[in-house]
Amino acid sequence: MTIVTGARTGAEPPDPYATEALCARILERHRDRVSVRKERLATQNLARIIEAVLVLSSRQGFHETSLRDLARETGLSMGGLYTYFDTKETLLLMILTEVVESVQAALAAAPPEVAARPRAHLRWLIETHIRLTEAMGPWFVFAFMEAKGFPPPARRLATESELAVEQVFAKVLETGVRNGDFAIEDVSLTAALIKPLLQDWYVKRAKYAKRGMTIERYVAGVIGLVERAILAGSDGPA
């Protein structure tokens, strides 16, 4: 498990999920759209823009957030904003694509010794996904809450990403069934049912905070629930 959240010391490497680190990757991906040539300045300003988007969207929704709102929140001029994106849809796709790419990269990084054992791999996937949503909380909340209002390109990207995540889990479940580790009648359905358990941690974060739920307990709870349902020889349903 390589995704770590919480306090860090100066001896630790930079947080790959800090806003500026995420924005540096966005800038690299969209360099042809961003006209600011100084990389450090471009990254810092893009981080200001995206942080403002996440804050304003949580208050009033992305659709209701105007570029004037964004300029006021960031302290950048309207012209300054347009040096980073041409439309709000482009800005939305920048954010959503980074969420999608981060998920895909994280779930594909299982150590070989973990990937070789379906039960260990499933546990690793569950923990990795939940900890990633903790590290990128506002980004995931934004993507989830704004999904209904996505324009077609963003909606397609979100749908394809959700299916891709389910397929990652389904592949591990299928391997476990073949190995005799799991007893599952419908692998695709089981993978689809796991997904909401992963989302619940960030979608209902306030509820779990009031209950004093730690991420460690939540991860263990999801793993326990899933394993009781699918382990071969368990008393739970398949």
From TrEMBL:
- Show the SUPFAM superfamilies listed in the entry: Homeodomain-like, Tetracyclin repressor-like, C-terminal domain
Where do the HTH tetR-type domain residues begin and end? Answer: 43-103
Q: Could you tell me which residues form the DNA-binding region? A: 66-85
- Extract the Pfam families matched here: TetR_C_24 (PF17932), TetR_N (PF00440)
Q: Which of UniProt's keywords are assigned here?
A: DNA-binding, Transcription, Transcription regulation
Segments crossing the lipid bilayer: none
Molecular function terms from GO: DNA-binding transcription factor activity; transcription cis-regulatory region binding
**Known PANTHER family for this protein?**
HTH-TYPE TRANSCRIPTIONAL REGULATOR ACRR, HTH-TYPE TRANSCRIPTIONAL REGULATOR RUTR
Can you name this protein? Putative HTH-type transcriptional regulator YfiR
Classification lineage = Bacteria, Pseudomonadati, Pseudomonadota, Alphaproteobacteria, Hyphomicrobiales
